Amino acid sequence: MKTVLITGASSGYGLETARYFHNRGWRVIATMRLPQPRLLPADDRAIILPLDVTDPESIAACLVAAGSLDVLVNNAGIGMVGAFEASPMDHVRRLFETNTLGTMAMVQAALPGMRERGGGTIVNVTSSVTLAPSPFAAAYTATKMAIEGFSGSLAEELRGFDIKIKLVEPGYAPTTRFAANTALPIADLIPAAYAEVAGPIFAAFAEPALTTRESDVAEIIWRAANDASDQLRYPAGPDAVALWEAAR
């Protein structure tokens, strides 16, 4: 039986991905800051563990409890939408601590076990903001672009150990808790000087023609985790696919 560890699995993409793998017979380690036992079926293949990806001791304890891993899915993240001019730098640092350094810390902690057992797959969940310029998401985009560059380099570095690195790039999903995962309301980050520019952009997000479902992302994460090829990037959701094709 294969084992997957998923970070940020209390809701959204992470929870849907945990359920997707569990339904296909995997042993699932669903991690979150505040464990909620009733999110997954009560059986020996569904294990919920506490994890703070910004805390080295929490990471170490989680990986010891999880045991041997076939797949690591780095999904935990927080968001921020607004004009960069109005974005507090302490929150920008928090974005990097979670989205970028948290992902890198999880990868570093998982690599020795995967290398010693002769292989594995690491799926880093970024965003479609890496596929095209995204106004009013500059800091968030920077945290995800860093992981894109990190993952590309790491894929080459680990090729000789049969450890695959994958990037899943989800599109815009109104049903996820992206906006809830920040303490800063969007309205507070749009100064009056930006209102004319921001208005049409946020109106378009309110009624998007193409949106990403949580199930879209779970399916692509599953595909990436089980793909033995050297493909690195996997857009997830119709809007992400459209951006990816336009970029190509």
The CATH superfamily name is NAD(P)-binding Rossmann-like Domain
Count of distinct strands = 7
Low-confidence stretches: none
CATH class assignment = Alpha Beta
Predict the CATH topology: Rossmann fold
Question: On the 0-100 scale, what is the average pLDDT?
Answer: 92
- The SSE order reads EHEEHEHEHEHHEH
Q: What integer value in Å does the Rg equal?
A: 18 Å
Strand order of the largest sheet: 3-2-1-4-5-6-7
Distance between the termini: 38 Å
Pairing-aware structural class of the strands and helices? alpha/beta
Range of helix content: 40-55%
CATH second-level architecture: 3-Layer(aba) Sandwich
Q: How would a textbook summarize the main sheet?
A: 7 strands, parallel
Integer tally of domains: 1
What does this molecule look like?
This protein has 248 residues and is α/β, with parallel strands linked by helices. It has a single domain, classed as 3-Layer(aba) Sandwich (Rossmann fold), CATH 3.40.50. The chain has 7 helices and 7 strands; from the N terminus they run E-H-E-E-H-E-H-E-H-E-H-H-E-H. Strands 3-2-1-4-5-6-7 form a 7-stranded parallel β-sheet, sandwiched between helices. Helix 3 links the parallel strand 4 and strand 5. The longest helix has 29 residues.
